[in-house]
Design brief:
Elements: E1 10-17, E2 22-28, H1 30-43, H2 49-68, E3 74-81, E4 86-93, E5 98-104, E6 115-121, E7 128-133, H3 139-151, E8 155-159, E9 164-170, H4 176-180, H5 184-193, E10 196-206, H6 212-215, H7 226-230, E11 236-239, E12 246-249, H8 251-255
Parallel strand pairs: 5-10
Antiparallel strand pairs: 1-2, 1-10, 2-9, 3-4, 3-6, 4-5, 6-7, 8-9, 11-12
């Protein structure tokens, strides 16, 4: 029996629920998760199951949030947790149609509370920063707190069957009673019976786009003093801060030879 092929992209649908005055974002994340695991294989890494699930959930939630936002934005979320002591990072762009992220477990500062940091960048404008205190370890709940405090409107995120996720963001004059009791079970079939309109679709892929040339500026302070950086080594390993991919750097790379 032939195995079902995995689509190259995760297709996110943006749907307006007419009678509820809510925006529904939904997608099946198997393509993104497949590329994520291929990336980990390349890094020869394997995360503990609980941390891995949290990072995958964060990738899904941020992808849906990106689709609810204007095209030009690049958004990065970092969650700094006390227990387990770890940092979760994800960033993406609708314009470039990518999402990437990584897990930090070494040399992580222990905060006195859990925090979610959000940075939104738009070309030609100063980055917008916000910090949200979160009580749980669930990105689904982080998103709800983020919308309440930063977006100033209600939103909920759900994991549906398998790798399917959905986000519902309230619009002006939304159906508050319906929104309050909303469940994942209802969202599984809501477009089968509720009045709606598909506004757009966006395609996302798990990729960073990092290259050695993009990493080298991080080391520019050592360009004129390579001995302090390399010592007696011919090369050093430098890690991409966004996806953890490792690059071998030589003194010649630093000088642009």
């Amino acid at each position: 029996m032939e195995q079902a092929s995995v689509e190259e992209f995760t297709i996110v649908e943006s749907i307006f629920l007419r009678e509820k005055n809510c925006l529904l974002l939904r997608a099946e994340f198997t393509p993104i998760y497949t590329d994520y695991y291929l990336h980990l294989m390349e890094l020869k890494e394997r995360h503990p199951a609980g941390l891995d699930s949290t990072l995958k959930e964060l990738l899904a939630v941020l992808t849906l949030h990106l689709t609810a936002r204007p095209w030009a934005e690049t958004i990065a979320w970092t969650a700094n947790l006390r227990a387990p002591r770890a940092n979760f990072f994800a960033t993406g762009s609708s314009t470039s149609e990518y999402i990437t992220g990584r897990l930090f477990t070494e040399d992580v500062r222990e905060p006195n509370r859990n925090f979610l940091y959000s940075q939104t960048t738009v070309p030609g404008a100063e980055a917008s920063l916000s910090t949200i205190e979160v009580e749980s370890n669930s990105p689904l709940e982080w998103l709800q707190h983020f919308y309440e405090q930063s977006e100033q409107r209600p939103a909920k995120a759900f994991q549906l069957s398998g790798d399917h996720f959905a986000l519902v963001a309230a619009q002006p004059d939304f159906d508050e009673e319906w929104f309050a009791q909303l469940s994942a079970k209802e969202l599984e079939t809501i477009t089968d019976y509720a009045a709606h309109k598909v506004l757009e679709t966006r395609r996302f892929k798990f990729t960073c786009g990092c290259t050695l040339e993009r990493i080298l500026p991080v080391l520019s302070a050592w360009k004129d003093k390579p001995d302090e950086l390399f010592g007696d080594k011919d090369t050093i390993s430098v890690q991409c801060p966004r996806c953890a991919k490792k690059y071998s750097v030589s003194p010649g790379d630093l000088k642009g030879d």
